[in-house]
Amino acid sequence: MSKSTVERPIDRSGQASAGTLRHRGQRILSTGLREFALVPVIILLLIIGAFINPSFLTANNLINVAQQSAALGAVVVAETLILLTGKFDLSLQSTYGLAPMVGAWLIVSKESQGLGTMWNPFIGILIVLLVGLVVGTINGFLVVKLGFNAFIFTLAMLILLAG
User: Fold this and answer.
1) b or e along 16-27 (b: 16 or more beta carbons within 10 Å of the residue's beta carbon)?
2) Does residue 16 belong to any structural domain of this protein?
3) Is the dihedral of CA 97, 103, 106, 112 positive or negative?
4) How many domains is the chain partitioned into structurally?
5) Could you give the CA distance from residue 91 to residue 82 in angstroms, rounded to a whole number?
6) What does the chain look like in DSSP terms, one character per residue?
7) Residue 72 — φ and ψ, nearest 5°?
8) What's the farthest any 2 CA atoms get from each other in the chain?
9) Is 145 within the bounds of a domain?
10) 78 and 93 in contact (C-beta within 8 Å)?
């Protein structure tokens, strides 16, 4: 003999029940708390840093940290765009190291371990962008157009560029 099941009528009125609203509220609250879970740790690290070194929370140091983070932020935005397409690029960190190194190498004198070309720094910045563009174009062409495995190829490019 089969058991009969009683189906509950579907509420199509657009109004959520109290249980559903409570569940949504708890989910939003738990998600919100997860977003801020590291805030106490960051505050503790700021206090420890200020205690160890009095110049830690000065305006000059905070500006320096913001300037250093800006370049990394641009790289993170680029990686986010790559991830949105369903791919990923493991070679991004080595490109992030190679491009500025080549730019600096071209504008620094031979006495300072540069190439000795002493080019204008503006040209050095253009070279940095060009190196990043070339590496990205090679990666993109081989992964998207020729169908190479993104993980394997960008890992190989990371090893190649990092040396």
Assistant:
1) eeeeeeeeeeee
2) no
3) negative
4) 1
5) 12
6) -PPP-PPPPP--SSPPPHHHHHHHHHHHHHHHHHHTTTHHHHHHHHHHHHHH-TTTTSHHHHHHHHHHHHHHHHHHHHHHHHHHTT---TTHHHHHHHHHHHHHHHHS-GGGTS-S----HHHHHHHHHHHHHHHHHHHHIIIIIS---HHHHHHHHHHHHH-
7) -65, -35
8) 94
9) yes
10) no
Boundaries of domain holding 110: 75-162
Q: Which amino acid is at 8?
A: R
Looking at the chain, the whole-number percentage of residues with pLDDT higher than 90 is 39
Non-local (6+) Cβ contacts of 114 within 8 A are 104, 105, 106, 107, 108
Q: Does 134 have pLDDT greater than 90?
A: yes
Confidence of residue 109 (pLDDT cuts 50, 70, 90): confident
Which amino acid, one-letter code, is at 39?
A: V
In a domain, 1, yes or no: no
**What is the overall mean pLDDT for the chain?**
84
Instruction: Examine residue 30 and state whether it is found in any structural domain, yes or no.
Output: no
Q: What is the rounded average pLDDT of the residues 30-56?
A: 88
Q: What is the pTM of this model?
A: 0.60
